[in-house]
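Task: encode each sequence below as C-alpha cells.

Item 1
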Amino acid sequence: MRFKLQAKMSRFLVIFLLAVISSGSEGSFFRRVCEHQRMRINCGSKVINIVSATYGRTRRGICGFRNNRNTNCHAGTSMMVAKYECQGQSKCTLHAKNSAFGDPCVGTFKYLEVRYECVPKSQVRDSVLLRICEHRTQTIRCPSCKPKINIVSANYGRLTGGHICGGRVRTTNCGAAGSLDKVKRSCQGKRSCRLTASNGIYGDPCVGTYKYLEVRYRCEE
C-alpha cells in the first residue's frame, strides 16, 4: 500500500513538473537552418519578438559533419540582423549566409539558430532608432517622465547599402562585436548620454568601408 502511494505521488510530481516546464516555454519557438538555407518565420495575426539569434557554430553534429571542428564561432551581428529583419513584423525571412551575417569562421560550415515569440503588437514596446555616421557625435536624451535609457541593440559597422550615411561601401556585413556592451556602459540607466561613432572606440570591423553607429533604445520610468 505504501509503495503504491509513493508511486502515485511520483507520477503526480512528474506530471506537475512537466506542466510547469511547458507553461514556462509557451509562446517561445526555436528554429534552425543550415548555411545557404532560408528561415521563414510567420506569427499570423501576432508579431515577432526576437529572443536570441546565433549565426555560426557552437556544436558538432549539426548541419553535416564536414568542416565542423570550430565550435567557438559566432557572428557578432547575429542579433542585430535578426531584429533588423524581423522584430515587430508579422512574418519575415532570414538567409543563413555569410553575405547576410558576415563570416565569423572562414572554412567552417555554419548554421543559424533563432529563438522567438509571437506576441500581441501591444507587447512590443516602441523603440527609437538612432544612426550616427562615422566621426560624428549625437546625444540621447530622455524626458523627465521616462528618465532612464534602456539600450535594446547597438552595432558599429554597416548592415545596409550606401543610402545610409553615404561614403565608400565595400561590405554590408560589418559589425563590431563589442558594440552593444560599449553603448550600454555609456548610456544604460542614464537620462542622457553622448555617443561618438569612431574606430577609436569600437575598433574597425571593416577597413575601407564608411561606417555608422546604429542604436535602438527606449526611454523608461
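Item 2
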Amino acid sequence: MDRKNGRQYLAFGRSIDFCISNQLASAELRIAFQLLLMPLPQMSLDQWPNPEFAAIYHVRTLEQLHIVF
C-alpha cells in the first residue's frame, strides 16, 4: 500500500482485539481465487492505476473488479 497508515488497516482488528483467524481468511481467499482462475487460464485480473474502494467503515473492498478474458 502507498498510504501513510497502510499498516494500521483495521479489517482484522489490532492489538488485543486482533482476529486470530486472519491467516485462515487470507489463505481461503487466495485459494478461492486460484481455483476460480484455474479453469480459465486466459482470464486474468486487469491492471488499472486507480482502483476505487467502497466507503464502508469496517471493510476495505473494491467498487469494481476488472477481469480480462
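Check on item 2: The chain has one domain: 6-68. Residues 45 and 67 are 5 Å apart (CA to CA).
End of task.
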